[in-house]
Amino acid sequence: MDPQFVLKTFCLDEKYSIDSKFNCYLVYIVQGNIVAHIGNNLRRLSEGFLLALPVESKVTFEALSSDSEIFLICLDEIPKSICIDDIVYSNVEDTHLHLPYRNVIDTPDLLKTFFLHTVNLLRKGINSSELKQMRVNELFLLLKVSLTPDEFSRFLKPLASIRGNFKARVLRVVDNSMNVNQLAAAVGMTRSNFLRSFKEEFKETPSGWLLRRRCKDVVTYFQTHDVPLKIAYQELRFSTISNLSAFCKRFIGKTPREIRLNKSQVDEEFIL
To answer: Which residues pair with 50 in a beta bridge?
Structure first.
C-alpha cells in the first residue's frame, strides 16, 4: 500500500480515532493543542510536535483548542535505507532536542518547513502516489540529518517493529487456500512491496510457501478424515472434486485414495 496522507481539522473537544492494525503512523501537529489517548497513556501535544505510533496502536485524538489540525502519515513500511539498530553518522551537530515523551519530538525547524510545505500541497489537492512516496523518503532523510544518532534511534524505534512484525502479520491472516494477491491484500500491502518483504523475511517465494502449506493441509486432512470426496473438496475449499484430485496428483504425486492408504509414505517436504 502506498503511504497515506490525512489532514484532519478539529473543532473544540472533537475526537478522531485510528486503529493501526497493520500500519505505523507519524502524526504532526500543524496547529492548536491536542491530547492523544494511547491506551492508558496520554500525550499532550502542541503545534510543531511530531508523534511516532507503532503497529497495532489504538489512539484517540482530542482537540483542546478550536481549529486544531493534525497531519497523519500512514506507512506499511519504512524506507529500506533506514537502519534503526545500527546508526552511524559523522559531522552531525548535537541538537539536544527536547523529547517530552519517548515517541514525541519537538520538530526541528527544517522539518517544520517540510511539513508546512507538504500540508500546503495537500490543501491545493496535490496528493499523488508519486508525491507521497517522494515526500516520505525526504521526511526520513530530514529526520536522519536533523537528529543526533541517539535522538533518531529513540524516536523511530517504535516504527522499527513494522519490519520485524511482518512475519507475525502474515501468519495471523493467512488462509492456505489464498493466492498471493489475496494474501498481500489481507496483510494490507501492494503486491510488489509484499513480494519483496516476504522474500526478505521467509527466504522463499510466497507462492511456493502457500503451495507447501496447501499440500500439508490436504495430506493431513486425508490422513485424519474418512469422508467422501464430495464432502472433502468443499471442506478443503476446492471448486470441484476434479480440481482436488488434479491438485493431489500434480503436487503431491498421489490420488486422495493413495494418500489415505499410504499414510507413512507421503513426502515429508510438505511438513512445515
So the answer is: 28, 105
Model confidence band, residue 164 (pLDDT cutoffs 50, 70, 90):
low
Please answer whether residues 46 and 29 qualify as being in contact, where contact means their C-beta atoms are separated by less than 8 angstroms. yes
Q: Distance between CA atoms of 140 and 81, rounded to whole angstroms?
A: 9
pLDDT surpassing 70 at residue 54: yes
pLDDT surpassing 90 at residue 98: no
> 3-state secondary structure string, 82-150?
CCCCCCCCCCCCCCCCCCCECCEEECCHHHHHHHHHHHHHHHCCCCCHHHHHHHHHHHHHHHHHHCCHH
Q: Give the lowest-confidence range in 11-15, 79-83, 132-136, 245-249.
A: 79-83
Question: Phi and psi dihedrals of 128, rounded to 5?
Answer: -80, 160
Q: CA quadruple 113, 119, 120, 126: dihedral positive or negative?
A: positive
Neighbours of 129 (CB within 10 A): 10
Question: For the segment 235-251, what is each residue's pLDDT rounded down to a tens digit?
Answer: 999 999 999 999 999 99
Contact 3, 136 (CB under 8 A): yes
The predicted model gives 12-28 an average pLDDT of 86
